[in-house]
Amino acid sequence: MLKIQKFGAIDIGSNAIRLLISNVLERNDEPAIFRKSALIRVPIRLGEDVFKSKEISQENLERMIDAMTAFRLLMNAHKVTQYRACATSAMREAGNGYAFAKAIKEKTSINIEIIDGDEEAAIIAATDLHTLLSDDQNYLYVDVGGGSTEFTVYSEGKLIVSRSFKIGTVRLLNDLVSHKDWEELQQWIREHTASYDRLNLVGSGGNINKIFKLSGRKVGKPLSYLFMTQFYEELQSYSYEDRIVDLGLNQDRADVIIPAMRIYLSAMKWGRSKQIFVPKIGLADGIIKSQYLATKTDLD
Fold first, then answer.
1. CATH 3.30.420.150 domain residues, the chain
2. Cβ burial, residue 35 (10 Å; 0-12/13-18/19+)
3. Which residues, including other chains, have CB under 8 Å from residue 298's CB and lie 6 or more apart?
4. pTM of the predicted model, to two decimals?
5. Euclidean distance between CA atoms 147 and 174, whole angstroms
6. For residue 31, pLDDT beyond 90
């Protein structure tokens, strides 16, 4: 007997907001299958407001209300039975973040949870990431966002340590990451990866997904440190306009992709990693999975 449940996940980041709708398929005692039904991304850069002025602008509040209204209608049309909306770095640091969330709920009935960096990392860890990792390998998982980046060390299939740093692409664009911030990250990575002879990076986020697509590599194949270095230099040789026209990047991707590559390359260098895997998973996938697991726990 096949049972299909529909879940929604709203990821409110610093560079964009996303709605992921997934079907969860259950048949008899077989493991559940998670299948993407729809993914909508709206380029609302909340981090541009918050990291400069500490507050979200009225203009972006109105855009968010429009987007959340649309997300609500789409979830209704898809007959989503359960959803969760999580806001990360930008809304977390905004002086008016909670008032902003309240205003959106009043206008759209979408309830937004403002989560901290540790919970963000935990939700991402709820994805099927562990099934993609070999039990005899060591990994540094790097999820690059607009306002922060989450780093998680896995060894022998187990989560060892995780931490969120306020180093993100929108912050870097606005020159809001200090030398001390970089030094602290470098020290943390070196300290927690020094005992491993070989370490693979696992990257997530819209930028590394786009880099992987542009690379032309087959799904499942890693990107080498050499490729990442050369591609970083190549990207910098293009103007912002050329990245849009010649490389086909969206306007809000064409600028943040370079600071994103700087973060990934730094992590590879400090972790002594020669390659990065790109499984195309992230916060929204973790929100879907954690909701499903919660329903199973409730039933138990």
1. 131-280
2. exposed
3. none
4. 0.89
5. 11
6. no
Q: What CATH architecture applies to the domain 2-117?
A: 2-Layer Sandwich (3.30)
Phi, psi for residue 113 in degrees, rounded to 5: -95, 130
DSSP string across 153-184:
EEETTEEEEEEEES--HHHHHTT---HHHHHH
Classify domain 131-280 by CATH number. 3.30.420.150
- Per DSSP, helices labelled H in 126-256 are 129-132, 169-173, 179-193, 206-215, 225-237, 240-245, 251-254
Q: Tell me: the pLDDT tens digits for 113-140?
A: 999 888 887 888 777 676 677 888 999 9
Contact 259, 211 (CB under 8 A): no
* CA–CA distance, 218 with 278 (Å, rounded to integer): 11
Under DSSP, is residue 135 helix (H, G, I), strand (E, B) or coil?
Answer: coil
- Output b/e per residue, 46-74; b: 16+ Cβ within 10 A: bbbbbbeeebbeeebbebbbebbeebbee
Farthest CA pair distance, the chain: 58
Gap between the Cα atoms of 292 and 169, Å rounded? 31
Q: How far apart are CA 91 and CA 220, in angstroms?
A: 34
- In the chain, CATH 3.30.420.40 sits at 2-117
